[in-house]
Amino acid sequence: MTPSASLPAPARPKRRRRLLTRLALILFGLLLCTELALRIAGHFYQKRQLEALEQARSENAKRLIILAMGESTTGGLWLPFEDSYPKQLERKLREYYGRQRIKVIVPPHIGQNTSHMVHRFAGYLRDFQPALVIIMAGVNNTWSLAESNLGDFLPPGHWQTHLFRLRRWSDDVKVMRLARLLASGTGEAWRRMGRDLEGAPMMTQWPPKPDLLVKGVGPEPFLQLWRSDVGRMIEQAQAAGTKVILMTYPNYDDPPLAEIEAMAAKWSVPLVENHKSFAPFLEENRAQEVFFDDLRHPNARGYGIVADNVLRCILENELLADKIRVKGEHESASENPAADGSS
Question: Are residues 166 and 285 in the same domain?
């Protein structure tokens, strides 16, 4: 007779339950330890990054920093970064002012949505100490939902709102992120991750899964999200003494132009209306001259137009006048860029 056969019938389910409970506790402990290990590793990685930033801060103090906030339309998708509007603007500003110390920076964690940006914005202000911030953001808010603050504006009390908030919370669980990475990180997925914008959390995908949002949700929560996130960034920048430029997209109407205009008026910041510069190309069937095939992302020539628009706005509004003068104007400047703190 086996030991298990000698057990009374009611004892077997109890033993099974104890075994399952132990296994569940062991699994939970392993997950907890893995989560802790990932967070510790992340802490030390971020510490190294912060140490590098501390060293860079002393260099930034010698430079005039302009911070360009945005997503792929700012980073220059499908182009060498040197052809993006921030780098073209940097060259134009250096040429105009005769100063090599001017630097236009696109943050390392280029935001997929405005919530990504606002969550990191205070750190960018601290680490980069910009004289000017340029914001062209919001087009990804309706589909890029990782880290999104959208849950604050969905119908309160609805079960799908609670589900969205739960998924939003779980997105910050490192084990979940690792599992998603491992699940999608084989073969072609790894190659795509290296050359495009893949590898983001599952809530960041196109088209978005319909079960992520409350059924029938209209545009208003997304507009409220944009107003909140962008408003907070402008408020933080102005509180730090940093000037702000708000921009429309070359060919996107989300967020609506009226919303961007109202935001610029509310905070009394200059507005660069890029859509007006690109409208003739679209109306005259010459879009391929300034856009890639998607008619959304500018090519090098298109980004040159954006850079010119920003430069004009900076000069007309004298946004850098208290930080830097044109070389040779009201001062005797050395011809050696190094004498001006250049890099």
Answer: no
Domain of 179 in residue numbering reads as 155-212
Asked if 269 and 244 count as a contact pair (C-beta separation under 8 A), the reply is yes
Do 179 and 315 have their domain in common? no
Average pLDDT value for residue range 291-307: 96
Q: Maximum CA pair distance of the chain?
A: 104
Most confident range (mean pLDDT) of 8-12, 243-247, 319-323 is 243-247
Is residue 109 domain-shared with residue 237, that is, in the same domain?
A: yes
Tokens of 7: 């057990």
Tell me the pTM.
0.76
Please check whether residue 17 lies inside any domain of the structure: no
Lowest average pLDDT, out of 77-81, 101-105, 337-341, goes to 337-341
pLDDT tens digits, 260-294: 999 999 999 999 999 999 999 999 999 999 999 99
- Token readout for 302 is 């298109």
- The alpha carbon of 124 is separated from its chain's Cα centroid by a whole number of angstroms, namely 11
Share of the chain above pLDDT 70, in %: 76
